[in-house]
Every structure is written in structure tokens, then in C-alpha cells.
Queue: 2 jobs
Job 1
Amino acid sequence: MKDPALDDDAAEADGEPRPGHIRKPIGWSMIVIIVLVAVSAFLVYRRDGVDGVTSILTHDLALFGGILPRVLAGCLLGAFIAELLPHEKVSQSLGPRSGLKGLLIGTAFGVIIPGGPFTAYPVASALLSVGADFGATIAMVVSWTLIGYGRAVAWELPIMGTDFTLWRIVISLPLPILAGALGRFVYVRIYRKGPP
Amino acid sequence: MSTALIIDVFLWSSVAVVGLIALRRGRPVLVASVREGSMDFINIVPRVALGVIGSGYIAAVIPQEIITGWLGPNSGWPGVLTAVIAGAATPGGPVIGFSVGAVAMKAGGGMPQIIAYVVAWALFAFQRLLLFEIPFMPARFVWFRAAVSLPIPFLAAAIAMAIGKP
């Protein structure tokens, strides 16, 4: 699946390890989920028989087919951003010394990022690798999870209703900045002995 | 599903725009990015498959009433704490997370507790953390991010208590 020659090429091209790259296709985190799914599928089989197992499978396979193109788009977006964003500019506007402005920019990034976790995390990882600090990246990730419009429009509005969704988003507005600020505050104290 | 279509259009337009910028920097930049992106895609597909196809089974096994029963209207701060734990422990994707919230709302759950549940689910849902955040981000960042985010659902519940219902 992986051609070492290709990887060497890529490493030469950008001169540093690729961000957002999935190093281990199968790790412990995946094994945990595999075990959980296997046990659950067995319990479904015990309860509902083969029909129960296949009906869930067909429904989820359709869902999977629909999501796949978005996963591809997210991976491409992350790769492009990692390749294109200038390191100096990012570390200036999102780096450790970017202050409140950096946290606000990170928050704004999280709001506008389209798609699901397979979009947001590659992009966040790309930002981290081109000079954003933990604080701004935390602001971005938290802002994507709490005030990103993608999930709110696609899932929360129809399921939870407009009132709840808007109310929750208003409550969430200051939270990414607070999380980012707390992240910076803690980070400086833990990793004081120079840059990691 | 017109909202999904709009999101797809916006997503692919963003890809097209950054792709064009890459092309203007030169073909090698474009080719290298597309190759890296495709490689990530190939590596992440098994996880997405497991996450999407597997979560149906996990959700089918865990009865929603168990989770919603914890989020009573007069449960106060213990209820908020339970809601946060329940949010982090809820398996599956957004349909399950929000459905549990909606059921709790219909069953008369407390608003601060439901807010705490939804926010905690958004921040900590273990399945998303394990399947997507850890493989894409440096593990050190993920744990740091999760630890720093711990106060957030409680803060959200506190704000909800302070400003009241919409």
C-alpha cells in the first residue's frame, strides 16, 4: 500500500515530515473499537438474528458510501493547506505570541471549516505543523465541535430543533476562546523548558 | 437532504479553490498535495468504515433510555456531571448523540443538563476521539486538548443556568 520511494519524494518536496499523515493505519485505538463493534454485533445477532445484523449493515453501508467523498475532500483540503500555507505567516498569526487575535482567528477557522471530523482534524493538524500553537489549534478544534455550522445544520437543527440549537450555539460562543486561552496558559507552564 | 448538498458543494469548492492556488504555484505542488491527500484517504477509509458501519451495532445495543434517565430536570450539578460522563461515553455519530439529547428534552430533562450532555458529546465522544482525532493529530495534542476542554461543558451548563431557557 505504501511505496517508500514515493514517501521519500514527498519528504524531499516539503523538507519536513508531513502533517496530518496517518502513520499507523491500525493502532490500539482502532483495536478498541473493533472489539466493541464485534461484541455489539454479536449481541445484536443474539437478540435479532441475522436479519437484525444485515439490516443495520445495509443501512450503515449506504451511510458509509455517502460519507466517502467527503472524507476524500477533507484529506485533500488538509494536504493542500499544509502545502500552501506559509510557515512564517501562520506562526505569526496563530503562533504562541499571537495573543487574543490568534485565538479569534483559530475560532473563525473552526467555524468556517466544512465537513466532519475527517475534514477538521487533518486541517487542524496541518495548521499545527505549519506553526500554529496548541492554544490556537485548541480554539479551532473546540470551535469546530461547538459552533461549526456543518454539524449544527446537518444534524442538530433537524433533530434538536431551531430554538435549542441557536441557544446552545450562543452559549458556546465564548467557549473556544476560553479553551484556547486555558490551553496556552497550561502549555506555557508545563513545557516551559523551551520549545518541544 | 438539501443541507447536506450545500455542505458538499461548499466543501468541494474549498478543495477546488486551494487546488487552483496549488496549481498556480506549479504542477509539482499540486501533484504532491493530491498524492499526500489521497494517501491519507486510503489510510483513513478503514477507520471511517469501522466508525460508520460499526456504530450502528453499538447504538443498537445501548438503550437510549438508560442515558436519558440520568438527565433529570432537578438533578442539579450531579446531573450535569452525569450528563458530561454520558456525553463522553455515547457511542456512534451525530444522529445518536443528538437523538439522545432530543429524547431527554422530550422526556423533560433539565436544560443545563442537556446542554452539558450535547457539549460534552461534541467535545469528548470517545469513538470520534479514538477513530479520527488520534490518527490525524499528534496524540500529545489530543490528550492536552481533551484535558483543557474538561471545564467547558460545566461552564456551558453554568451559563445555561444563569441566562435561563430561550
Job 2
Amino acid sequence: MPKNVEKYFYDYFLNLRYIALKAYLLQITKARQGKRGKQAEEIISQINHLLLEKKQSWDNALRAQQLLTQIYNKSALDVEFNKLLIQTKGVLSEQSATFYGEAAQDADQEKRRILLKDLIVDVELEKSTANLERVFARKMRIQTSIIFIVSILIFVAAITLFNLNILGVDWPAYEAAGLAMAAGVMGSAFSQLTGLKGRIENATLEELMHMSNYSSMLTRIIIGLGAALILVFFFQGNLLSGTFFPKFEFENGTLLPLMATNRALLLVWSVIAGFSEKLVPSILTTTAESVSVKSNENDEAAAQVEG
Amino acid sequence: MISLKKFSKRFSGFRKGNVEEQSIYILTRARQISLQSDFQQFTEGDEKAVGDKYPELIEEIRQLGIESDKFSSQDDLSLIEQLMIPLYSDTRLDVELGRRTVEIEGFLSEDMLRFYKEAATDTDHKTKQAILKNLVSEIWWQTAVFDFREVLSTRIRQRTGVVFILSVLVFVIVNFLFQWLEGWVADTTTYQTMTVSMAAGVMGSAFSLLIGLRERLESASLEELLIQQRFGVILSRISIGLGAALILNFFLQANLLSGTLLPEFHFSDGRMLPLDSVNYSLLIVWSFISGFSEQFVPNIIGQTEEQVTINEHPVHQ
């Protein structure tokens, strides 16, 4: 197998495009009866130069293809135009496809030549855009995977750090916050990884360019880190109710070390906080809404109860 | 008639060795001989009058080596096929159009095939020529696409297979490693369950890739195959399996899941006790499942998240 099979095939496809164009050119120059006008001769010489003298490239093939539209006979023009219209289904935007479809009904040959030329360029543009999108999507996949694997390493390192008590100090509060943040980072990286396919499919080229930046990925990671940290304080403040929440116990105002199940629960909820971008913001909003300012009436009622 | 599939073996020379190369030579040679016989008709045979009307075209085809006994290149044959079209009579055009449309069936989209079939019934001679020209060039193009797909599919199969075998090896090594470590390090249970889960998750996701391979290869377009063959895509799916299994591990430790045959974790003085064989196997099975099914852990996370309610009056400790 050749070392670079992809390049081999891309070159072969380019070669096929050149052969198809050369065949058109030779059919026009060698098989068409009657005398050609000066303008047609000029175009043929330009195409000859592009196809036979210049280096083979997709750009030159595109230029030659556009020039050929000016010398196609009526039948070739119709066939090329209708064929390209079908090929572009799903490639062009709906509006563009409708525009060309309606314009194709026009009987004026000169107008159809111009339209075909434009259609060729539009299709090339769309194909180039799709190629670029693939490049950025690939970059995103690799970067997201790397970030996720690094987050797992950080998580394992954090567990080891506190398990082996490498720092030599016994600070349960820091342990809880540290592990929660590491789990939050892992949760947000996992969320990015599992949602990757959907995000890539729905994104435009500009969005992909933006999303494939490390900084934009790290922003999401930082949100996960912060969300998990805030959640720890919600647990410590006993502000959440649910069957399976970690229970923090205090003695003389100091946090006691978390037992195994509680630690696992804390890790799970921190992963969830990182995974779901909306969990902590919605908890914050709900908590904020539950606050009401004390009024005098309330104070009097409270005084009566106490009395 | 030489079928498109047989003829497309052109590239398999570098895939399957010399026997294939020989058959490609024979098939291509057959096509060349068929074109030679056509050309003779226009230069010396019954249709010489037609050939005489297009002396420049005949000369161009001759220069491409049609009369030579040497093996013509694929490029030359493709060009000759397209250059012969203006020489064909109306009847010959009809025959060629019918033959080529059948040849390309199954390789084009339904719309495109319909377009060629309808256009082939056009009565205008010049339109028929233009259609045949497009069909011939389309057949060459689709043949190359078919070959490229074959090469990419083979590559994806090989890569997925290698990744799966590696994942099995990693799983076995991890198991051996912790059995060996037991004699040396005091408390490895936490790390053992985490690492074995991750290895089983990786194996599950690699297995999922392997199982779904056939369907994915059949339904994928050329562009999708180009994406799928990248190690990045395989790596991202494998990472999902790894992470899912690790997260599931903590769900199980926290006893957050209910269902039959889930592994049970036991703790003493805040430390995890070693798992017995049954629980160890159950952990491996569930980690494998979390890697195999991409949506399993995200669904669990979603369901757990829904359970949160805010305490309006927190109990102070």
C-alpha cells in the first residue's frame, strides 16, 4: 500500500477532473464543425494554457471549468447545468438551491451560461467550507479527548494526594473542596466529550473555529470547577434536600473527615455539577428567590409567638 | 460487459498483491481491445466516412496510443472513451447510454440516476452525446470513489481491531498488576476498582466500535469514512468509555443506583474493603456496559440531577 493513500486518491480524483475537462476541450476543438469566433478562440487558448501548460491543481481545474461554460453548445450547457443542480442538493443552502432551480427555467442561453458559472463557484465554495469544517471538527475531537484524559489524571492525582496525605496536614475542608473541584473538572470535560457529536453537527464554520480554541474549552472546564466548589458549600450549609446527598459533620465548628460513602457521594455530585452546566446556576437562582426581607409585621408576629 | 465492481479492482494491486494486478491488467486490456476495435471501424471499417469527417479528432485519439499493442494507461483509456463519443451514430449512442446507465446503477444517488435515465431518452443527438460524456466520466469517478471507500473501510477495520486488542491487553495487564501489587502495597483497593473499571470501560467502548463497524461502514459517505478513520475519532469514543466507567464506579460506591446484580462496596474505618470475586466480576461487567453504551452514564447523571430540591429551611448543625 502506498504510504499516503489519501494523497494518492486525491491526486487521482484531480487527474479524473482534468481528463473530463480535456475531453470537453478536445471535443470542442477537434470535433465541432464550422468556424469559431475570435472570442471563442481566445477562451480555448486560455483553457489550453490552464490544462496543458500550468501545473495540475484544483484551482486551475476550477478556472478551466468556468471558462468552458462560455463555449459549451446548448445541449452540453443544459446537461451540465441540470446535473450540477442535482449534485448540489444538500450542499447549497435552501435559498440558493431555490434561486438556481427557478433561474434554471429561464430559456435565455446567455443567462444560463452566467448562472452555471456562478453555480460552479458556489459549489466549490460550499465544498471548501465543508472541508474546513472537517478540519476544525477533527481538531476539536482531539483537543476535547486530551482535556478529558488530563482531567482524569488530575482527578486521580488529587485522590492520591489526599489519600497518601502527601502535604502532611489534616485539612478535611481542603480535601473536600479539592476533590470536588477535580471531580467537577472531570464532569465538565466528560460533558464536552459526550456532547461533541451534536455540537459539531449543528455548528457553523465560524462557531467551529471559535469552539476549537483551547480557551473556549477551558472556559467550560472552569465553569465545572467553580460549580463543584459552590456545591460543596451548599452541602456544608445543608441547603439541599434529597435522599442521597453527602453529609458533612462538624465538631467544634471544624469539618470532620468524610467517610467513604459520603466521599463517593460528594464526588458523584461534583461530577454532576460539572457535567450539567445548569445545575448549580439553577440552585443559586432558586435559593436566591427563597429569600425575603424581614418586615415589621413578621417581627411582631415572631415576638408574640416568643412571648 | 465489464462490471464496475470488477473493473474497480484497479487499485487493489497495492492491496492484494500480484494476482490481483494480473487480473486488473487483463480487464483493462480487454477494455483497450474493445476501444481499438471501435476505432478501427472509424478508420478502416464500415464507418470510415464518419471518421473522415473528423480527421483532427481521429488523429488526437491515435496520438493517445489506441493502435499500439502496449498497455495503455487508465488516464489515456478514459480520455479515449470520451473522445470517441462524437463519432458514434444515434443508434450506438442509445446502446451506450443504456449500457452505461445499468453499469452505474447502485453507485449514484436516486436523483442523479433518475436524471441520467430520463436524459438518456432525449431524442436530440447532441444532448445524448453530452449525457454519455458525463456518464463515462461519472463511471470513472465513481469507480475511484468505490476504491477509496474500500481502502478507507479496510483501514478503519484494522484500526478498530488493533484498538480492541490493545484494550483487552491493557485490561489483562491492569488485573495482573494489582494482583502483583497486593503483596507489596498495603491498600490498593480504591485504585484497583478505579483502574479496573476504566480498563473495562475502554474495552467496552472498543467492543462497541467493533460491533457497530459493519453498519457504520455501509451507511457512511466517503466524507464520513474519512472522518471515522482518524485515530482522534476512535480516541474520543474510547475516552468516553473510560470516563463513563470511572464515574459509574463512584455512583456504585455511593450506592446511588438500584437494580439487580449491582456490585456492593463495603467500607471499614472509611477505607474500602477488597471486593470478593462476585462483586469484582459485577464491577467489571457494569463498567464494560457503561463503556459499551455511550448514553448509559449520561442518562444516569441526568436522572440523578433531577432529584435535587432546595431546602428552604436548612437544619443547622
